[in-house]
Amino acid sequence: QSVLTQPPSASGTPGQRVTISCSGSSSNIGSKTVNWYQQLPGTAPKLLIYNNNQRPSGVPDRFSGSKSGTSASLAISGLQSEDEADYYCGTWDDSLNGRVFGGGTKLTVL
Amino acid sequence: EVQLVESGGGLVQPGGSLRLSCAASGFIFSNYWMDWVRQAPGKGLVWVSLINSDGSRTTYADSVKGRFTISRDNANNTLYLQMNSLRAEDTAVYYCARGEYGALGYWGHGTLVTVSS
Fold first, then answer.
1. CB B106 to CB A47 under 8 A?
2. Which of the four pLDDT bands, split at 50, 70 and 90, describes residue B53?
3. What is the rounded average pLDDT of the residues B40-45?
4. How far is CA B26 from CA B5, B63, B74, B98, in A?
5. Does A103 contact chain B (CB < 8 Å)?
6. In A1-110, where does DSSP find H-type helix?
7. Is the pLDDT reported for residue B101 higher than 90?
């Protein structure tokens, strides 16, 4: 059971906009910034969004993040086949004194 | 170019020990906090441990506390994870990652640890 809660799956067709949610509590998302990671099949995770809504260099602006209260969301617009991957939210948890991740959301491009 | 290369994984019996290494290059290693994150086959990411830039502060997930020890050698740009009293549930790919802006900005390719008799 992960500390952060994500839907196990999401899907969309090419060109669509999809969102993935991440729910936490006051000890993590409610008081810390949220990061998002993309893991393409058979590869290591890659940082997609940091500090709730910042994109590292090289990440397309089709990817955006937001946070409100104890929840966060990742939005992907103009969905492409190469976006098919697992997506994880992550942050720090003050109660656990460590990093925490969501269980991951498998995005399928139909 | 930032590179993180893990090594040291393999097959070990329950109760055994293993030391993982992560060789860093392409950046000033001693400036960054570093983490270990693991992923069991077909499962999600689980944070294991982190160490601050000079090695004076370490934290661990409850599941590994007292069994795993994170350390670093800044002179040789290497991060370590000493794993003792290994259990079947420790079987996973272990990634080292560089901490920045509160996130894990760069990840290695991972090394597989299998705990089985």
1. yes
2. very high
3. 97
4. 12, 32, 14, 12
5. yes
6. none
7. no
